[in-house]
Amino acid sequence: xxxxxxxxxxxxxxxxxxxxxxxxxxxxxxxxxxxxxxxxxxxxxxxxxxxxxxxxxxxxxxxxxxxxxxxxxxxxxxxxxxxxxxxxxxxxxxxxxxxxxxxxxxxxxxxxxxxxxxxxxxxxxxxxxxxxxxxxxxxxxxxxxxxxxxxxxxxxxxxxxxxxxxxxxxxxxxxxxxxxxxxxxxxxxxxxxxxxxxxxxxxxxxxxxxxxxxxxxxxxxxxxxxxxxxxxxxxxxxxxxxxxxxxxxxxxxxxxxxxxxxxxxxxxxxxxxxxxxxxxxxxxxxxxxxxxxxxxxxxxxxxxxxxxxxxxxxxxxxxxxxxxxxxxxxxxxxxxxxxxxxxxxxxxxxxxxxxxxxxxxxxxxxxxxxxxxxxxxxxxxxxxxxxxxxxxxxxxxxxxxxxxxxxxxxxxxxxxxxxxxxxxxxxxxxxxxxxxxxxxxxxxxxxxxxxxxxxxxxxxxx
Length: 462
Known about the structure:
It contains 15 helices and 20 strands. It has 462 residues and is of the alpha/beta class. It has a six-stranded antiparallel β-sheet, with helices on one face. Helix 6 (234-246) packs parallel to helix 8. The protein is elongated. Residues 1-15, 374-407 and 456-462 have low confidence and may be disordered.
């Protein structure tokens, strides 16, 4: 059996892997240009160090040159301009994740493994809707290694980054014959969590007219994903710990546990170790679950994957990716994507429905779709804090935070006040304070996090 790596060990190993920094072109074709020379000239002329075959590109369009420890992008008198993160520039310093557009060529500054820098491939499809780009390559190598193990895995990442997709990929690669079962812990009725999760005997409680094997046993021989595991009540966290330790489950109303063979995966939008420190999650349960931790980056931190992901969702919705203009691809790469891949898929579907009447899709046609892609009602509880309602917000704050977020905090201000009054009574125990005021632990943590961010904003604001 392979040795499990701790998160620091994995990060150290990834950091030690030779990488090459350069510009990864993502449209109209994929190619990588390493920053291996002091100066690289881009254009469609024969003198260019990297030829961009397009009539929209000047013969000598732009250059990237090394200036001490940094790289500078400079326009070379092009007729259509040189664009850096959406703005026309004469000269700009490049950083990782920056977006460059020369004519109709769009690229992202990134790092790739030295072994594939010269020839690729730079992207792989590791399953339906799973795109592995340079920034995700190390994560998927770790996924491949961990999939064959029996140890539990924790998958962390913001909403919409594909945690369940990753969980399914792990199950598919594990070779386990049983089913993949996904459980949304936040959706389990609190009064029925134990019965639904662990199962129950007939007559175990009022209304139990038939026996149930429970969700854990349903995954016997397979894989169980506990999504948003932090929403599991503390009492059930303790029982889950025993299930994992003893590889058996005790149904409600029975006295003899039943042996199980289940691979446990846990998903969380926030780092579980952080929640342990806040008293919102059991440290011993985390110890049992974290045989390996996979952390998914938000989409805006892996911009080079955005076109591939969008093209796939666009094609699935009967759109034609070849009709997307370079300005649209640039706008997609620069969008913030607060809901990540989930939001991207929805925008792709909406764009495909528009294409029929407009032919090509450029930046202007795409802009309203990106502007309108706001978090759905179910995601409001995770919105950032808005300014203190005791003082009128200034216009700059309103522009940044938006009307919906300001309304959300105003609606929950009373709950926050009650929670803050309850915390001293529970000596800072967030779970106990949440119970006192009738909140879930996750809702309480979101409110406290919003208040902390607001306080920090007030300190930093000049």
